[in-house]
Amino acid sequence: MTDSKSPRRRNLLKGAAVAAGAMSAPMVSMAQTTSLRFQSTWPAKDIFHEYAQDFAKKVNDMAGGRLKIEVLPSGAVVPAFQLLEAVNKGTLDGGHGVVAYHYGKNSALALWGSGPGFGMDANTVLAWHNYGGGKALLEEIYKSLNMEVVSYLYGPMPTQPLGWFKKPVARVEDMKGLKFRTVGLAVDMFTEMGTAVNPLPGSEIVPALDRGLIDAAEFNNASSDRVLGFPDVVKNCMLQSFHQSGEQFEVLFNKGKYSALSQELRSIIDYAVQAASADMSWKAVQRNSQDYADMKKAGIKFYKTPDAVLRAQLAAWDKTVSKKSDENPLFKKVLESQRTFAERALQWQNDYQVDFKMAYVHYFGKKKG
Fold first, then answer.
1. In the prediction, which pLDDT does 367 show?
2. How many separate domains does the chain show?
3. Domain at 78, CATH number
4. Which residue range is the domain that position 94 belongs to?
5. Torsion angle, CA of 40/42/45/50, rounded to 10 degrees?
């Protein structure tokens, strides 16, 4: 028997290790990278496009070179409102936007964001989507439209302002006749209130305001509104509204491209969505609050939307969804699912949650303007 510690034995073992290493090296270098081309529905400078890139980075980092998502800004391949068709056809491998942008294809899609959602905030709407039946309903709607896509919803948005106005809104009558920008089912709600609505995509809003093509507009949040240039053309912003108080983002994949991925990569996408959802909500608190403070210092006037206008929104919403329910069975189905979930979830939430504003006033006083 040969001594395991003999020079000959050691050389044989060393040679085998080197050979094994040489055999394994090409296998690592030959690992293929799947590249997916995405487009967002947001201008490159908007924080929303940054959120899209944040999601892609999480996927790319976790995939370790096996999957790479590149995110282009709105308009790079198709206009913002054509994202769903482009992903379905494979013109794009995926995209980042909001479900309400597909409203024209089926009115029920607007219920993922537009309107008061029976009192649900954006995080509660996501709870309904993921655990209360919303996900299956969205898949049913896309199937009815022959859209071969895989959809992930994430990123609970803060309550959106009523919008930017040349003059502050003091009465419900002030909304009548205004040429106003919004999207989704909010179009119908504001139309019911007598507003003349123009559903412009994000990149076109401020130029239209500047040229007087519209009188007022809403987009989304302090950070987006600031970087898009709203404060440069209008000096009054009305805070609080029910028109889009529970919206979230959507990440879309072409179904064929998604299905071709390994189960491991699909799992990475699943968990990247959840991680990006939390990260986005934290970043929004930091960035929105800072931009809000900076705009106030710059002389922008912020006003609370009068309760009378908020109540008028609820009344207009009730009329709108009643009409849509009669026209569209899927709309009625989604609405009833939301109502059932909201009644239970919000009783718990409202009963359990303390009034945080009380603590804020206790420590900082009631600050205005």
1. 61
2. 1
3. 3.40.190.170
4. 32-157+246-286
5. -50
